[in-house]
Amino acid sequence: MYHYLYTNDMRVSSLEEKAIEFAKLFLTDSVPTADENKSVNNNANTIGFYLNLANKGNSALLAAKNDVRGVVLNFIKTFQFPNPRTKDSFEKAVADGIQLAPLREIIKLLFLFGQMQKEEAYLTSDEVLSFIFYNDNLAKNTSPDRVSVIREILEYRKSGLLGSNIASANQREWNHESRQIGELIKVLEWSKFIDIDSNKIYLKTSGSDDMKYKSELLDIITFDEFWDYVDPNKGLQDLKNSYFEYVDSHIPRQDSYANTNDIENNKVSGVMQRLYFGAPGTGKSYDVSQLIKECYPAIDEKDNPFVFKTTVFSDYSYFNFVGNIMPVSRDGEISYDFQAGIFTQALAMAFKHPKKDVFLIVEEMSRGNIASIFGDLFQLLDRGTDGNSEYSINNDMISHYFERKAISINKIYLPANLHIIGTVNTSDQNVHVMDTAFKRRFDLIYVDVDPVRDEKTNQLLNSYEFSFNDGKQFEWNKLYMSLNKFIIEKLELSEDKQLGQFFIKFDNYLDNNQKYESMQNKLLHYLWDDVQAASMLDNAKIFKQEFLSFSKLYKAFGNRENVFSDDFIKIYDSIVL
Known about the structure:
By secondary structure, the chain is of the alpha/beta class. It has 22 helices and 14 strands. The protein starts with a strand and ends with a helix.
């Protein structure tokens, strides 16, 4: 006999998202009980078993770091029958004598098939069932003769006859067999190891230089271990612990996961709703990062689960910000799910962790129609003395999402621990004008062009020195301050044409050649198009009079020629920082 049990819940359309979500829930002991949310509880425990997330070990840690592929590859390699999903299914598989790792076996057979007879190197779903799951010579043999199995498959394709080693229909017991074998094969398809064409499963061939693919494939093909359960009469939890340990041992040891409740938080006094504005490169984002660092000193911003960032662009909409109903494919059928936007994700985090400060950072606010982007959320920006929104709204999309996350609130509002921080470049062209009513709901913080120094050493940040062929030397901080002085005093332009210390972030470049090229590519264009061209004065020039076209200026700067006018050089020499 053959008894198999799998699941209908390992849907690859949402596998990555759910693996990350459930891994974090297990690691933080936050999986809702069945009474709190039966659907999430069932789904988390099912996926938690098969991907070994419930064990809170290396698999869960890897998934929580967004490396779901590593976890799934380990599942392909180690998942086997018997397994202790239930005590009954385990005992039946043991009594049947089954010892099968089906996913890696499909890969092994397809690989060997390709070596033997490339033109016929495929498997159908029915062949997978008959020659892998219900084949006495393979499913009940830890050292199968795969060459013979392939020959049997080729013979079957000619004759349509199955050998006596293939279990008959009355010896097979597997509820939802067709659906569940399909889900298993979809995992392989998700991994990119196979292609499916006309119900034929092919091993996917990769380019000769794709060493990562080859390494992953070889790791599976050469793996032959099975879980040694030793005593099948152990209790279910002991069997699970043993199985989880076996699966987890084949993933490299991971650093511990930072429990969100354990992250140090210097609580903010009151609610922050700020809008940082100023010239490009003044360090608005730097100031925001420093603010977050003061609040969370022990964790990098990029790793902080309480920081949510988005950047507005011209077509950015309410649905990008809040979320949208998107089509998803499940079991060959199209359905529709709400995919949460950055605002909804941040709001959910704030409600789930009311004792933590949650930051929603909205960069480049004026590049889109910000009033339209916020939509009905605009009403929530008025905060009361307790920091919560003075008003609340109904929003079905967000409410339904919160139900899935086991967040119970009647109406949507902004809690006091959710801080919204925006940035705006005052010199951006083709920007949307923010209406006064919107700006009035934020504290407007002007970031000036003065250079920032290291708090400990007092050294200027973002410093870079370069020289021209004539020997004239320049330092970036002195250069941009000289340009700003020239823009105001000589070109008689407004402050929003100035540039800031971080207009070019030199730390992002590996060497001085790249840093110099960044000036050629970024600074020259801005000065030529947005600054010099905006001035109505003919007698004030940043660059020498001989440069009548940008192409000549660009080429000269690239050749290390001194392109600056004498008037500008005089101002540069007079600046003291």
